Amino acid sequence: MTENTAKKTALVVSAHSADFVWRAGGAIALHHAQGYAVHVVCLSFGERGESAKLWRKGEMSEEKVKTARRSEAQAAADILGASIEFFDLGDYPLRADKETLFRLADVYRRVQPHFVLTHSLQDPYNYDHPMATHLAQEARIIAQAEGYRPGEKIVGAPPVYCFEPHQPEQCNWKPDVLLDITSVWDKKYQAIQCMAGQEHLWEYYTRVAQQRGVQAKRNVGITSQRDIVYGEGYQSIFPRVTEDLA
Amino acid sequence: MTENTAKKTALVVSAHSADFVWRAGGAIALHHAQGYAVHVVCLSFGERGESAKLWRKGEMSEEKVKTARRSEAQAAADILGASIEFFDLGDYPLRADKETLFRLADVYRRVQPHFVLTHSLQDPYNYDHPMATHLAQEARIIAQAEGYRPGEKIVGAPPVYCFEPHQPEQCNWKPDVLLDITSVWDKKYQAIQCMAGQEHLWEYYTRVAQQRGVQAKRNVGITSQRDIVYGEGYQSIFPRVTEDLA
Amino acid sequence: MTENTAKKTALVVSAHSADFVWRAGGAIALHHAQGYAVHVVCLSFGERGESAKLWRKGEMSEEKVKTARRSEAQAAADILGASIEFFDLGDYPLRADKETLFRLADVYRRVQPHFVLTHSLQDPYNYDHPMATHLAQEARIIAQAEGYRPGEKIVGAPPVYCFEPHQPEQCNWKPDVLLDITSVWDKKYQAIQCMAGQEHLWEYYTRVAQQRGVQAKRNVGITSQRDIVYGEGYQSIFPRVTEDLA
Amino acid sequence: MTENTAKKTALVVSAHSADFVWRAGGAIALHHAQGYAVHVVCLSFGERGESAKLWRKGEMSEEKVKTARRSEAQAAADILGASIEFFDLGDYPLRADKETLFRLADVYRRVQPHFVLTHSLQDPYNYDHPMATHLAQEARIIAQAEGYRPGEKIVGAPPVYCFEPHQPEQCNWKPDVLLDITSVWDKKYQAIQCMAGQEHLWEYYTRVAQQRGVQAKRNVGITSQRDIVYGEGYQSIFPRVTEDLA
Amino acid sequence: MTENTAKKTALVVSAHSADFVWRAGGAIALHHAQGYAVHVVCLSFGERGESAKLWRKGEMSEEKVKTARRSEAQAAADILGASIEFFDLGDYPLRADKETLFRLADVYRRVQPHFVLTHSLQDPYNYDHPMATHLAQEARIIAQAEGYRPGEKIVGAPPVYCFEPHQPEQCNWKPDVLLDITSVWDKKYQAIQCMAGQEHLWEYYTRVAQQRGVQAKRNVGITSQRDIVYGEGYQSIFPRVTEDLA
Amino acid sequence: MTENTAKKTALVVSAHSADFVWRAGGAIALHHAQGYAVHVVCLSFGERGESAKLWRKGEMSEEKVKTARRSEAQAAADILGASIEFFDLGDYPLRADKETLFRLADVYRRVQPHFVLTHSLQDPYNYDHPMATHLAQEARIIAQAEGYRPGEKIVGAPPVYCFEPHQPEQCNWKPDVLLDITSVWDKKYQAIQCMAGQEHLWEYYTRVAQQRGVQAKRNVGITSQRDIVYGEGYQSIFPRVTEDLA
C-alpha cells in the first residue's frame, strides 16, 4: 500500500468541536509523530448540545459559546499536531445541504487522505454524530468521482474508521482495531484538558483509554516486550487490503 | 507486533483435506514466500461428503478414498510450501471429543502461530465447517491457559481469520480483509489442480480469486502502481492491534 | 427513579391520528389510571394513507377526511384519558423540517415526560412510521440541550419505547417489555371502536392484545394470582436504570 | 396469485443508467421472454460517478456524457426488451424531492407492476444506490394509498427485490432468490456490451452470473435434467405469499 | 424445478409430538390435498415438557403420558393426511447421537423430500426446538453425501422452512413465506382439537393463523378475487431457485 | 409481579469461581441488602484457565489451585452475603452431561429464583462462559417442566440476565439494564480483593463499574437527587412483564 508521495495525510471529520479530542486524540498525535499531516474538520462547535457548563455561566450567547469552543478546539489541535478548520454548520440539529457536501468533498481532494476518522454509524443519544458520518462517507464518494470537478485529482479509497461513541454498545459499535496510543497518551491528556467546558468527561475518557489499552494487550498475537497501557478503539467500514496477516 | 523469534509461523485448520487449498491456498503460498512456516491440520479427509467423483468411480471403499484424498492434499501442501498433518476424525459428521481438543491445543503449543486460518462461523450447507472453527477456537483458548499442561510455553493471542465458504452470503460471512495473492496465484492454481476429485470447483475458485482481486483493487487507499489481479477474502474474529491506520 | 414532582407525565408521538390507539391505547389508559398526565401528538391525520374506507365513500376531499379523522382521534383520546394535539404535517409522505423539530422539542420541554412512546425504528410497509420515530428521538435530544432556548428547563433522559407495528417481524421489531393492560382493555376496545374508518383492524388488534397477553403470562417470574389476558408489547431504545432485577 | 389482467408487468428502478443491465439484465430479458412488459426508470445517467472512461476522453461536458450514457442505456433496454425512461435527477449525489417521489408513484400507478426490482438497502461505496431503493419503496407506498390522487387505480403489494450490488457482503446483501437466467444469457451479455464506458465491468459481471449459476444449481430441490449455467441473485424485502412450498 | 418422479413428497421434523400440528398443520393438509405424500418424524413425545395437563391428572407415568401423546399425534396426522413415525428420543432435554443422525438421514433418503419443515433456528424458551432443527439440517447434509452408504440414491437440495415458534420475535424468527391455508383450515383446526392435553393453545394458534392470514392478504402482489383468511408463516434457510419473480 | 412468598431469592450461575464477583458482585450485594437470599453456583474453579498467577508460584497442582480458588470464592460470597456451592466440573474446557443438567435443574427447583444471573450468550475469548449460559438456560427450562420429577414444585419464568463479559463489544453483548450499585460498591470492592490470584483485574473492574455508573446517570428519566457513581450492566434474555413504563 506504500507509494512515493511526499507526505502521508489523514482526515478527521468531527461533528462537534471536541469530539476529535476524546475519540481520536491518540490517533492524531500518534500519526503526527509518525510524520503524517493530520487535518481536522469540525462541522459545528457543539454550541447548543455540548456546552452545558458554558451556558450555566450566565451572560452567555451563542456567539460567545462558539468563540470559547473554537479556542479550546484550536488549542487541542495544536497540542496534537493537527491542522483544523471549522465549518460552523450549527448543531442540535446538524444539517448539511449539497453545498456543504461539496465543500467537504473539496477538502478530501485537497488533503488526499491515507485514512479517515469519523463517528459511529449509529448513536441513539446523538443524531449529529451519525449525520457527520453520513456526510464524511458521501463526500468521500463524491471526491472519488471523475465527473465531479473534472480534471481535478480524484481520491483513492482511503479506509474509514469509526471512532468510539460515548456509550459504545448502545450504538452497536464494535471495534475491530485497537490502536496502541501509549506513547502519545500525555499529548492526548493535555489536549483533553483544553476542554474546560466538559471537565466531567476527562476522567471518563481516561478510563476508556485504559480499558482499550488492557484489551489491546489481550489481543496481541505474540507476547512482545512492549507494554500497552492506553488504547483507542476503531470500527472499520471497509475491508483492509494487505499482504501480511500477522 | 514484531519480536525476535527465529521464524514466523501460521496454522491452518481445515475440516476436510481440500478446504485449505480452495480457501487459503493463496495465503499459505504468500506467507511461505515471506518466510513463514505454515502448518496445516486436516481434521478429516472429506471422504464421505466431498469426494463424490471418487465414489462414482466404482470399486471404492472408504479407505481407498481416504488414501486418494491424502495424496492430493499432500501434493497441494508441497506446492504451497506448507507442512501438513491429518487427524482422520471422519466427516459427515465431523465430531471432536476432549482428546481431539487437547491434540489440537498441543499443535498450537508446538507451532506457536502468529496467525490462524480456519472456516466460517456458520455454514448451513456444511456442518463440519463451523464445527472445525469451533474446535480451532476452543483449542486456541486451551493453549493459552497456564493451567493446561503447566510449565509448557503457552500461546499468545494470534489473530484468527475465517476463510471464504462456498456460498459466502448464505453463511453470513463478511470479509474485512482482502489479501493480495497475485504474486502466488500460479502456485495456488497448481495446488488446486491436485484436487482431481473436485475438478468442477477449479474454475469456480479461480473466479472467486478474480472477484476478490477486483474488490481488493477497489479498496486500496491510495492508488499505487502495483496491480492486484487475484485475491482472497478473510473475516477476522478478533480486533487487530496496530500503531498505523493507513 | 422516583422524585417529588407534582404529577407524572408521558408523551406519545403518533405518525397518523389512529396509531396511538391500536398500538398504545392500553399504555395510555393504564398510566392515566395510575395518575399520569398522558399527552398525544399526532403528526398527521393519516388522511391519504390510512383512510381508505373514508375515501371510498365518495364526495370526499382531503379536508373532509381530516375532519373525520380528527374527531375520531379526539374521541379516542377522551376515552383513554389523554390530552391530544395535531401537527397536521400531511402524510404519505410525512416530512418534517427544522421548525417541526423545534415544535416537538418544545412539547417535550412543556410536558417533561417520564417516558415516551412512538413507532418502530423500521417499517418497510410504512415510511411515515420510522420518520415519526426519528423525529421523536431527535426532538428529545434537542430538548435535552442546555443551548436550545437557554434558560428553559431541559428534559432528563426519559425512556423511549417503540410500540408494535402492523407486521412486527418484518419491521425487525422485538418486544422486550410486555405491558399488562388487562385492567384497561375495555377502555382500549372502546377507543378502538372510535376508528370507524378502519373497522377491519378492530379484530386484528384485539387478537394482537390477546397474543401479547398470553405471552406476558408466560414470562412472569413467579406465578402470581393475577391473571393476564391482554397485553401490549414494547421495544426499548435505551437501557433501563434500576435497583431491582426481579 | 394469478389473475386475469391483460398483461403482466414489472418495474425496475435504477439509480444510474447502467445499473439495470449489470444487476437485472437477466431478469428483464427472462420476463420479457415470458410475456411481461418490463419498464425501467433510470433516476440519473450516472454522469459524474460512473462514467470515468468517458471523462478521460477529454473535451467532455456533463451534457455530452449524459447523451452518451442515454444511448448506451437505450440500446441495452432495446436488446433486453424493456421500455425505459430517464428522470435525469443528477448523480453523486442523487437527491429526490416530493415531486420526484410523486412522479415515481405515478409510474407505479401507470405500470401496475407485478414485481419491482431495485438496489440494495445499504451500500457504503455508493450512496445513490440505497437512495434509489428508498425512493422506490416510498413511491410504492404512496401509490398504494387511496388518498393519493383519489379515484385513480391504486397498486397492490408487488414484491420488491434488491438486485446485487458490486461488493455484496460489504452491503449486507444476502440473496434469498436465485434466478436462472441461462436461457437469456446471450441477451444479457449483448446488453452489457452496450456499456462501452465501463468495459472493465463486462467480465466482472459475467463471472458474477457464473457464480450465481453454480450456486443456483446447488440449491435446486430435486435434481432435474435442466442445467443452470448463469444466474442472478435477489434479496426480497417482503414475505412471499404462496400455496406451494416446493 | 419440475421433474418426472411419481409423486411429490415432503418431510416434517417435529421435536415433540404436537409441534407439527400447531406449526405446520396447514402446510401438511394443503400439500396432501395437492397430491404430496407428507411424512412426519416426531423426535419425542414431549412427555416431560409439553404435557402439563396430563401430568396433573394424577396416577400418571412417563409411559402413560407417551401413549396418550402418541395417539393424539397419530389422530392428528390421520386428519391432515400425513404418515408419521416416532423416534422416541425423550424430551427436556432432547439429545441426539450419531446413530440418530443416521436414522434421520435414512428417512431423507427414503422419502426424497421436495421440501422440509422444521423448527426455528433459535428459541430461548425451548432448547429442544433448535436441537431438532440442527438435527434435521445435519441429517439432510449427510443424506446428500455420496460417501454415506455409497450406492444409495442421494437427496438433492430440498428447501428447508422453519415454522413459527411460540413467541416469534423472541426467537429472532422472521417469516419470508406466508402460506395461504384458508382452504384447509377446517382440517387443521380438527387436528388441533386432537391435542386434548394442550387445550389452552387451541385459540392461541387459531389467532396465529388469522393474523398470518391478514398479513398474507397485505402482501399479495396484485389484488385477486381470492380471499385469504388463514395463513402460516415460514422462514427459509436456503435461497429459492426460480424462473419467475411475480 | 409481587406475591406473598416468605423470601425473595436469586440464582447466579458462574462458569469459574471468580466470575460472579467481577460481573455480578454488585447485584448480589444489592439484593442481599434488599432481603433476597442469593445463591451462587460455581460450575468450575477456573483452575486451568483463570489462575495464571497461582500456577506461576511453582510447586502447584490442580488440587492446590482448586483449594485456593475455593477459599477466595467462599470469602467473596460471604462478603456479598450469598450462599455458594461448587459443581467442580473442570474448566478449559467446561463440559456438562445430562446429570449436570439435572443437578442444576434441581438447584432451580430448590431455590425458586425470582431472577437469574449468568454469562453472555457469546464470548470468542472464553468458550466456558457461553457454555455456562447454555446450561443455565436449559436447566431453567427443565425445572419448568411438569414431567421432570413429577409432583415437585416447578419454577415460574424468572428473568435471566447476562452479566458483562471482559470485552463486551467483541461478545456482541449489549446492556439493556444498568443497575445502580453505588450503595454497595464498598462490599463489591472488598469481595474483588479476595481474588488474590487475579490482582491485575481489580482496577479493570473498578473502572468498568465507574463507566457503567456514568452511563446509568445518563439514562435516568427524570433528574433525581440521587447520585449514581457505580453501576453494573446486564442484558436481558426475556421480555420484562410490567405495569409501569416509567
From TrEMBL, chains A, B, C, D, E, F:
It holds the Pfam family PIG-L. PANTHER family: BLR3841 PROTEIN (PTHR12993:SF29), N-ACETYLGLUCOSAMINYL-PHOSPHATIDYLINOSITOL DE-N-ACETYLASE-RELATED (PTHR12993). This is 4-oxalomesaconate hydratase. It comes from Candidatus Pantoea floridensis. InterPro entries: GlcNAc_PI_deacetylase-related, LmbE-like_dom_sf. One of its GO terms (molecular function) is hydrolase activity, acting on carbon-nitrogen (but not peptide) bonds, in linear amides.
